[in-house]
Amino acid sequence: MALIPDDNVVFAEKFRVLKGEPFCFAGREYLPHIYHNDNKEVNIVKARQMEITEFSMNWLVANLARHKYAVGLYMSDRQDHANIFSRRLEAAIEESALLKSLIIPGKRSLSRQPFRNGSVLYMYSAWGDFEAARSIPVDFAVVDEMQSVNVEALPVLKEALSKSKYGKLVKIGTGSDEGDGWWNEWHRGTQMFWNRETFGMPPQWDVVKNTQRVDGIISYRLNQNMAAWLNQDIIAQKKKTYSPRRFANEVEGWWFKGMRKPILEKEMLTLFDRNIGFIPSNEVDHTMPVYMGVDWGGGTNAFTVPWIWQLTSKTAPRFQLLYVSKITERSTEAQADMIANLIDKYDVDRVVIDEGGGARQVEKLSKRYADGVIKCHFVNRPGDPFEKISSENRVNVDRTWMIESIIDLIQRPEEIKDFPHPIPRIHIPGRKLEDVEWLIDHFTCIEAESVDTGTGTYTKYTHPEETNDDALMACGYALMAWLYDKNAEWFWVRM
Fold first, then answer.
1. How is the chain split into domains, by residue range?
2. Could you tell me the pTM of the whole model?
3. Torsion-angle region of residue 349: left (phi > 0), alpha (psi -120 to 50) or beta?
4. Second label for 344, Cα 20 to 30 Å away, from 37, 137, 294, 468?
């Protein structure tokens, strides 16, 4: 086995191979300082394409190869992201004979990489407040996608590091919203920036002066202006075409100060139950009604999403999700047939469908199911947000009110006397996370904008063009199906 250098930069140059060439720091002058940093706690807020995933891989592998019987832990917001990291590590090992000499061949799994010196690297999701870290005595840890994890639960991971003689933690993420948990965590450190105004000297890392910080925490900020492979013309073009939020987060490597995000990822995480899976359609107990909402999409950027849930408590109300999927089929005829099959399969009591997004699908389903399928038409009418028109099998709904009704279900769980924890009013089976994790993006993408109407202000919900809110809208239509049957008894909603 090759001798492991003490210097992480030398390790990367000697042991890593990228696209057939030795790993090189040329044009990446900002990286060696980060590689050489030996602090126990490091925060990195970054733009995309800044090669920090490569850093995290190099940092973990170098430390685990250097120290016998050490335990490394890579955590990301979701298991599919951790799996991507694991596959990148596998590819890096295959590309480098020296890296391959460090590991035990044939013993790795998607979540575990053993080393010849007795060290091991685990790769898990940070889901459930870093639950996977509770039973692991960790020496070196990386948390990726910090903007999407529950920062308040970091003490769980720090406890896993607390008995180690190394106990080193690197936290990495893009910015999200100014003032969020990751923003506060990064600002606890030194707040270092890449200073190009050094009076004829090479650029260097400098510390923001006169800021409050916690001793021992180093914080770096990386933006795409630092990347030699991205010229200013490319960045200028991104500024023209990206939304302000996306440009701030992914190009400037910073937090966005603007429209608020009404649904946070940590709020969505409370809805998932890892102990249960979806109930098969032939096992659904129809003692309580089943409702369905459908949002139409073309199958490329926007998707047709059927959302089927069952009422489990009439008073709360509370619902359990039975089925949800992204339909990629582009044919409108086929989409209508697929929805019809689901209606029959789950014996749905009431369906509400998007009237505006799929004319042919709406026509076909309306003919087949008559008043069993209700068309949803959006109106801008906050004072009278829900109008049932039975003669036309239609409901007129204020879109803002519908979205705020879903927000209310998410943010106001049911409190039950003598029960220790509030019960989520949307219950999402999470045993197979890969089937439902995508829902988080569809709910958290929306942004709230205050619009002046002349007589007051009105909240408008939008989402960046590069994101999809299809599942949120389908969930909203499913709620409208319940309200349709409830008639005018919708006043439980917080306005």
1. 8-250, 265-486
2. 0.72
3. alpha
4. 468
